[in-house]
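LOG
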Amino acid sequence: MSYPVLYRSSMLFTYIFPAGTYECAFVIGPVMYTAKAQMNVALLPDEITMKINPLIVNCAESSNVSIKATIADTTETYDVNWHYSVSKLTDLKNTTSSGNIDYSAMAHIKCDQPTEEQYVRITFKNNVNQEKSEQYTIPIIYENTKVCSDDNSDGIWPKTPDGTTVTIHTCENNTVGHKTRTCKGREWLPVFNSCVDKKLSEVVSEAEYFEKGMGASQDLAKNVFEGLKNFSTSETTESTANVIGVIKVLDVMATASKTFAMTEEILPNFVESASNILDKNWQGVNDSYIHTMSSQYLKSVEGLVKYIKVKNTNNVATPNINFEVCSGSDCNLKVFGINVTLHNGTKVVKTVGLKNLIHKLPNNYQNSEQLSDKIIVVTQEEESTSPFKITLDFPNKPPGHRKPLCVYWDTEKEDWSEEGCTVKSSINGSTLCECNHLTAFSILMGKGNTPDPTLDIITYTGLAVSICSLIIFLIIEYLVWSALIKSNLSHFRHTAMVNIASFRLLADCSFLASIYPEILTDEWCLILTICKHVFYLAMFSWMLCLSVMLVHQIIFVFSPLRKRVFMFFSSIVGYVCPILIVGTSYLFCKYTKTKYYEPDKCWLVYDGPLQGSMYAFLLPVGTITLTNLFSMVVVILTLMKTAVPGGSQKQDKETAKSIFKVVLYLTPVFGITWAFGFLLRVLNEDHPAYLFANYTFTILNTFQGLFILITGCFTETKVREELITLITVGLPRREMTSSHNGHAHHHGFVSTLSAKKRFTARI
């Protein structure tokens, strides 16, 4: 008589009944009651393996192909149906050998239909009309088909049409499985080897039988993990196919553990085999497949740790895995140097530390980088019904001012997530994380700096003041324009200043509009990025025009610039060049399929030295800043030459005072303050001078509009007097003396140059 096999978990009973006669008996006093019945089970094939010969049908050689479908031998009688997409199959037969049943047929390929996919499908139907099918698409080489030539490296690969993946069931000694290879264009892609060791294949089969309930018991579970441990310590594990096989066993047993309560006897072998596999070769496949393998591995380990019942085991330590158990509502554990504390938990808390895994997992979260090389998995045997929290103290702190991220592995998204986790502190070389759920945790660091509230306040305050100052500056320029523009030189200077102020105003407004990128659509984020890119470049371009004009007037005193030449040159440099640079960089990024902007910042992309669209901003601005710095040096040297040799101490003080005024005036107008921004790119974030440079850059550049207002209006005598005249409109205008005119046409540095007679008449 047959008996059912019982699986039991805390709340679930699952019975797996094989076919046979079942009898149930129970006793009341001296009387026994029995009942029995015959149970029949309608089966379907577990696996249908289809092969064709030849592997590739070449219409130039033969149009016939034999197809074979193989299933495991069974007592079930199937209704088998073949289907060929273009005609009928011939020579249908079946044979039994070596525990398998082979169904075969012959197909005649239609070589005159190159656009139609040709396939063969076999369907098995049992006695209750349940069906299972398998389909095989026949690869065909037609006339003029693009093909990969024959290749005998790592297998025998026949001539194959473009886009076709070939499977061969030929493996090396003591391995079973298959190899696949894809033809792309006229080139073969690398071979994907799925041949696993025979011993590992047996362990995989045992695990699959266990999951299906065929003889599932604690002894079989121990056998599976003992075999896995023995295999993981052997040298044959080095192939990627074997690593995939081990992960498959862990995944199958993790699924089975949800319904079959495995005991702690399997823990040592499980932990050791899972640890050993992390040191093996995972590099035989592409990164995408490694990401899938590592994600499946982490999910399987977490599942097994959660459902394996623990009574007496406190810890299991291996090189890559550290398993710890704690009892009580408040648990304190230390795993690989990481302190883990669970508050208000259930009775049994299991924690596992994993090394040598995090770099194998994908990381697409907020352009972040790994900070810790460890993953901490925390689980409870019983689900908690009351709120709880877990704290993890990682002995890692991001360098400089980079932002730490407390994350957990989201198995659905297969990526890291911060949901439910917060950074409580990041001081003294460690980072404290707090989360309100249990799973696999780690810590990352953002590529950007940690938000500084003080810098944010300075930035927003400075931009508001700058915008107001620039509006006032433009209004003043409009009101006093006719009174100021008395020569070409004054026209050049004020035209440049108005353009600098206008583009800086537009750039600041665009910057403020993008300070909350999370509420912007991708389209608006792109528009604002382009606006900032164009407006800042245009501002610097007009600074260059002002700089070149000044140096020209100093060097070529008696050859002044003509108005037409200056306006043509300035229009090309100030308007056309910024648009060309931005347009070219955007089209280049689109053509090369690289990112032009960061959606989380609404600004250009910086991917490292000379990488990213940021250099379409940094290179032009850096060039202009250096040019303007050179112009400032020329002005300072000119002032020094005008000083009388052997002059009095008073004259030396006047010269030094004049140089100070030049630096004070030209620094904001020439954009020299942006040099601190380049300094930030050069300095490491943990450098002592980084914080000073960051604050200096923020203060000087957010208040740049205010500095332009002060140096462009309030320090110029004629502008002040025109403003007073406008305010006291009832007073008659006063005539300016000739000596006064020497100061009125230029402010700041021009007044210092008036000491040199050959400049007085020109500037």
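LOG (cont.) second protein
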Amino acid sequence: MACRALQTDKCHPGLPPTPSAHEAMRRRVDPGQMGKLRPGEVERLAPGHTGRPRPLWNLLLWTLLSCGLGGSAQGPGEWTPWRSWSRCSSSCGRGLSVRSRRCIWFPEEEPCWGDSHEYRLCQLPDCPPGAVPFRDLQCALYNGRPVLGTQEAYRWVPFYGAPNQCDLNCLAEGHAFYHTFGRVLDGTPCSPGTRGLCVAGRCLSAGCDGLLGSDAREDHCGRCGGANDSCLFVQRVFRDAGTFAGYWNVTVIPEGARHIRAAHRSRNHLALMRGDGRYVLNGNWAVSPPGTYEVAGTRVVYTRAAGPEETLHAAGPTSQDLLLQVLLQEPNPGIEFEFWLPRELYGPFQARAQALGWSPRQPQPREVEPQAPESPMAPAAPAAGPPRPLTPAPDPCPPCPDSRGRAHRLLHYCGSDFVFRAQVLGRLRQAQETRYEVRVQLVYKNRSPLRALEYVWAPGRCPCPPLALHREYLLAVQRLVSPDGTQDRLLLPHAGYARPWSPAEDSRVRLAARRCPV
């Protein structure tokens, strides 16, 4: 590649450098002087400098400046490539590393634009307990040395009350004065508990790109230096007034959500549930204390003011779906919620938000029948013989009729005395009926008060639908009182409504409540 002249010649392939340009190059660079510059010093030689030329070096450097970097020689100088990053300034905790470059420019040009040094935050494992802080070490270097023009020596400790926190301000132990020993070393924390580090006498904080003094910040989508164009802002108000007291679904907070906020002003309470059905906040009719809660890979800050105001905040991103609910105790004045979501996740969120439908992910326990204890006088079991193939025992119960569908749900919801969510704790089969012991968790409809523990009766030894032990169900039952008033039972009719609980079924039951005739 041929090069251009210093002033007016253009860069044309195949043309050798003009004598004036070659002579200027010889005056400009002496390789023997290249390594003698201090970091950050611009490399500029006087026009009268007469160094011994090296034609190959001159040719390569001139090609780099004139052709590889392009433009006219009349503009600003050119930077050399960045050198490698230095080692971290600290052996533990936070420190900084630095890299530098040099400016190459001619007498007729302007100096380079930009910085000759860049500083990057480096994070090492935390310092062990009892480690001496970096600033303390620098003050201790002056212990026992005479200062202030006297022969008296002192012991020095850091002093943080001086105006410039990046000066090495040290307090004389046992005395009421401090002395400034110049600047602290680069990489010294500005003050305890802050994120800034001192660089060349200035306190700098790192941007999201890790560079100290950088203005780069993450956008709401989590992209460093982004413009919020890779995500969407979801902001809505839940205004459902509710037809009964209890838990109502507000919205799904999907995996990947950021900058989450929910707030309302009422005596109601926000509730937060994991995807597996376990509550994080204000679940099972118990109010949680304000504070910070770890869930779904983020921290949820729950606040409840003295007045009727309640808020949830979380930075995100969430690592799993969450369900936001409200425990209604009075008419809902409106619940505001918002979050940022990646564009590719918005479509699936819309589908889940409409149906609130994902199946619970907890393992389903198997039902185990109680067995009679072995008698100590029972004969010993015979020695195990060759394994025999297991044949499934015939199911003594016939299949249940199909009871799915909206019409079936609406019929039993509107015609029942009680609708509630319950967990099956026990089961007792008798000759003509089956009795379930259940723990009531959430009441959707009731004609009279329910206790925390109730018995639910179903006709026959093979009730339809059957209820598995330890599972949670939505049940629609009727109250059955004997003519003489001696029996008062909750009856689950044959082929009645008993569905495994899920957020989707919860939402469908609430919709059914609105369609019952008055």
